[in-house]
Amino acid sequence: MSDEEKQSAEVSEAAGEIVEAGRVSKWLTEQGFDHEVLEPDHLGVEMIKVAPEFLIPFSTALYAYGFNYLQCQGAYDIGPGDGLVSFYHLIKLEDSGDRPEEVRLK
């Protein structure tokens, strides 16, 4: 992956603002997974945009990284004639964790 591609995976522009890559996004970039960084949700949970054809490899990598619980899965219609957006909320559950790490894939 070129330096330019790495930089675009780490910092993405959304609505004119620069969005910094979170911990999971940085790890995925180090592992060679190309993705787009989205703004964190209203709770501050990191959100990552993944191409549909790479969803299974991404999910497998995140499972290996410790994200072992699918809390929520869903989809919504963008609008008439547009596509569907699928989303997945993954959590890293541990025995002693009181604030598990979370990530959302779109």
What would you note in describing this structure?
By secondary structure, the chain is an alpha+beta fold. The chain has one domain: Beta Polymerase, domain 2 (2-Layer Sandwich), CATH 3.30.460. The chain has three helices and seven strands, in the order H-E-E-H-E-E-H-E-E-E. Strands 3-4-7-6-5 form a five-stranded mixed β-sheet, with helices on one face. A two-stranded antiparallel sheet has the order 1-2. A hairpin with a 2-residue loop joins strand 1 and strand 2. It is globular, with a radius of gyration of 14 Å. About 7% of the residues have low confidence.
User: Major β-sheet, in short?
Assistant: 5 strands, mixed
CATH superfamily: NADH:ubiquinone oxidoreductase Nqo5 subunit
CATH fold-level label? Beta Polymerase, domain 2
Number of domains: 1
Helix content estimate:
10-25%
Structural class, by secondary structure, is: alpha+beta
* DSSP strand content: 35-45%
Quote the distance from N terminus to C terminus: 22 Å
Second-tier CATH architecture? 2-Layer Sandwich
- Strands ordered across the widest β-sheet: 3-4-7-6-5
How many helix segments? 3
Residue runs with pLDDT of under 50 for 5 or more positions: 4-10
Q: Estimate the global geometry from the Cα principal axes.
A: globular
Please report the total strand number as a whole number: 7
Computed Rg:
14 Å
Mean pLDDT: 87
Query: Which series of helices and strands comes N to C?
Result: HEEHEEHEEE
CATH class: Alpha Beta
